[in-house]
Amino acid sequence: MTDWPEKMSDKEDGDGHAEVVVKTRPKTQRPPLYKVLMLNDDYTPMEFVVHVLERFFGMNHSQAFEIMLTVHKKGLAVVGVFSHEIAETKVTQVMDFARQHQHPLQCTMERE
Ligand code: TYC
């Protein structure tokens, strides 16, 4: 989408003067979005990561398993995109839950 006002029409007013009608289109403000990333490590059990993805990211079992495998193979994956506040909450929930279970699982957020 262009930032420029949209030229609607050129009209001739009868004595050679052109009238240009321009409609301004105010920019819609959207809040910035944040990717929540899950990072691979060598120690967190696969089933634990699958459980985290089901519990905190609302994935079904097969989605969760697929994303867990992507993290395992590629080193990291985006597990969701949220507002700043929701992303922060997800990261905190995952990190707290992992710590409670003494797994080194890491979760971070990054502006999209
Ligand atoms: N690499 C881990 C293992 O082999 C599994 C794992 C997957 C860990 C995803 C973290 O975010 C992660 N047990």
From TrEMBL:
<dbReference type="GO" id="GO:0006508">
    <property type="term" value="P:proteolysis"/>
</dbReference>
<comment type="function">
    <text>Involved in the modulation of the specificity of the ClpAP-mediated ATP-dependent protein degradation.</text>
</comment>
<keyword id="KW-0645">Protease</keyword>
<dbReference type="GO" id="GO:0030163">
    <property type="term" value="P:protein catabolic process"/>
</dbReference>
<comment type="subunit">
    <text>Binds to the N-terminal domain of the chaperone ClpA.</text>
</comment>
<dbReference type="InterPro" id="IPR014719">
    <property type="entry name" value="Ribosomal_bL12_C/ClpS-like"/>
</dbReference>
<dbReference type="GO" id="GO:0008233">
    <property type="term" value="F:peptidase activity"/>
</dbReference>
<feature type="domain" description="Adaptor protein ClpS core">
    <location>
        <begin position="30"/>
        <end position="108"/>
    </location>
</feature>
<comment type="similarity">
    <text>Belongs to the ClpS family.</text>
</comment>
<protein>
    <recommendedName>
        <fullName>ATP-dependent Clp protease adapter protein ClpS</fullName>
    </recommendedName>
</protein>
<dbReference type="InterPro" id="IPR022935">
    <property type="entry name" value="ClpS"/>
</dbReference>
<keyword id="KW-0378">Hydrolase</keyword>
<dbReference type="Pfam" id="PF02617">
    <property type="entry name" value="ClpS"/>
</dbReference>
<dbReference type="InterPro" id="IPR003769">
    <property type="entry name" value="ClpS_core"/>
</dbReference>
